[in-house]
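[Solved] Which block belongs to which protein?

Original post:
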Amino acid sequence: MSEIRLDKDTAPTPSVPQPSVPEPTVGPTKEPTVNRTEQPTVNPTAQARGRSMHLEIATLVRSAVIAVLVLAVAALSVFLVIARNDLADSAAAAAADRHAEQVATDYAIGASTIDYADLNTWVAKLKTNTSPSLGAKFDAVGPRMGQLLGPLKWTSTATPVTATVSARTNGVYTVNVFVNLSVSNVQNPKAAFVTATYTVTVDEHAGWQVTEVGGLGAALPVK
């Protein structure tokens, strides 16, 4: 058997498959993707609602402040009116007291001024600005007092000291009047000085008339 020899140089080279290289595809070039932080999406409706709520709250606060200011002004106005009325009432009451004190003082001075030589004038002073009932009492008492004061040659003058309203009820004032008396008579030709106190009741509703008198005995020789 013949031996077949293959020459190394002539031996066939095994065929090795080559990998296929894809051909470059011509087309649009894609830009590289860049990771970006996404911004939150703002909802226009929610934003408008938030703005509306803010405006409503601000309006409510402003309305509440205005309401408080209005109430404060109203309360202050009421207090001022009450205070003004109280001051007016106090002033009116003080003026009424002063008027009652003046009426009572004038009456006390007239009742204390006596001249035995002119007793009719004195009786007239006793009746001056008195109520009809009180004036009627002096009409009855005056002549009897004249029978006593004439023989004694009684004279007296008075100067006011002070007068104070001690009570007031529904326009009726009780006034305490203090007067200094200078008294002379047959027994004491030289003037003697005494202080007399009168309690005079003055009725505002009767035209500030004198309705009662107490203490006249202090200015007279008998009670």
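(Second protein starts here: sequence line, then its structure tokens.)
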Amino acid sequence: MINQLLETWTPAQLGLVGDVLEVIRAPHPVLATEGADVDPMDPVMIALAADLVATMRVSPGCVGLAAPQVGVAAQMFALDVTGHPKTRTCHGVFVLCNASVIEATRQEKAREGCMSVPDLTGDVKRATRLTIRGTLPGTVDLLTLTTDAFEARAIQHELDHCAGKLFLDRVAGAHALYPRKVYL
């Protein structure tokens, strides 16, 4: 089910232009800290949402960014898989607060990278079909989003950040890690 809220939401509705923030790299402790729930109506959280979008947009190859990656242990992430070659379903750019998985099916292994772990990629098994629920910043209504393929993988990657996990925590072992060959 595509929620009507997501179809009409844009970062412009946040009412401000975000600042580009520094992306935190492992092993910084905030990356291993579970994020706190946020009030999506809090002006500080609305500003953080704008910052996540601004930082994501200036970072080549970036399709998602979670609050812990900019040093804030909070349940918020931005995502935009538009134009990525592996994208099948795309909901454009959005930010979600306090998101949780409602349903996840069909596990598949694929390669992932991360701005917080810039020198490595790894094979990670994730659901290829996903339904999540969360709140858009600046609203109080729950949104339900169903997606698949690359967008589902990217969402799960960002949800892991919000839970204090990195893709490194999900690889099967050192044999599933690889030096990054292309620096974006």
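Accepted answer:
You had them paired correctly. Confirming on the second one: The mean pLDDT is 94.
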